[in-house]
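Handout, tutorial session.
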Amino acid sequence: MSVANLARTHGNQGRWKDAEELGVQVMETRKRVLGEEHPDTLNGMARLAFVYRNQGRLKEAEELGVQIMETRKRVSGEEHPDTLNSMTSLALTYGNQGRWKEVEELFVQVMETRKRMLGEEHPDTLMSVANLAWTHGNQGRWKDAEELGVQVMETRKRVLGEEHPETLNSMAHLAWMYSNQGR
């Protein structure tokens, strides 16, 4: 566990090469000791995919992301929080590749599942809605993006309060949308 923590620390410091070297070591050890489908192995793989994404190695991040998502679906089920998180991570990789249709498909699936499982006002659901709003913005679909962004902001204001960091993030996201529209 300490090697995994050190790899995470390197990543937090932007020391991506060091994070990668330790991440590969953690992933390979966990595969050998715990097996390829163990949650800790999959977590190590997810961390390594994150490192690859931050290094701009998007093909490698995508390959790991698809493997993680498919394994989690098979082992834990399509509605498990870890599966939904792996879908979100893969969507972010697709976003870095400019593959907005695939991003949207994954984010819609995650959002709908979280709404059904957690309710419309749960923080994870709201993050999923915010992710979809971000996607629409990147697609140039400003009206759709704004509608979702306002919905997230208003719900967070009501549920979390006006000064909560997530509420403020929602406001900043709306400002980004308005700025990109010249408003």
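The second record follows below. Compare its token runs with those of the first.
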Amino acid sequence: MGKTPVTLTLNKAERAGFTDPGENLLNFLRRGLGDLSPKYGCGQGTCGACTVLIDGEPQLSCLVLAETVSGKTVNTTGGLADGAQLHALQTAFMDGFAAQCGYCTPGMLMAAKALLDRNPRPSRDEIAEAISGNLCRCTGYAPIIDAILAATGQQVQG
């Protein structure tokens, strides 16, 4: 079996590459296209570190075959900032110390971005639900939820 061509929009730029049969999107993004922002956590879809947006929907890139995203739009944290201007979520995560080791941060940011794209003023419970597929071993989730609330301009309790 030969390599399969894949053409997609990655973080607002048309990109193309070749994938091996059965290669997951995470590996294709990291090795094939050089986007190191999605992290390899478990390779089994249980940790959320590899979360990306595919046509606006959060997906675990370790579970998506690379060949299935041809013609689609894929967004990673590598495309959140607008030039030197950080996205509000990135700023809120930094200001609120929502990243400790930082390994879960890319997946958390993308899950949060998908939520805010659907609902610009979510409640704490809605945020907790939206990031529930993303594991964090360091923060206890409170600073992450607070940062997401802060990015929306809502008052953070506490």
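Points raised in discussion: The two ends are 57 Å apart (CA to CA).
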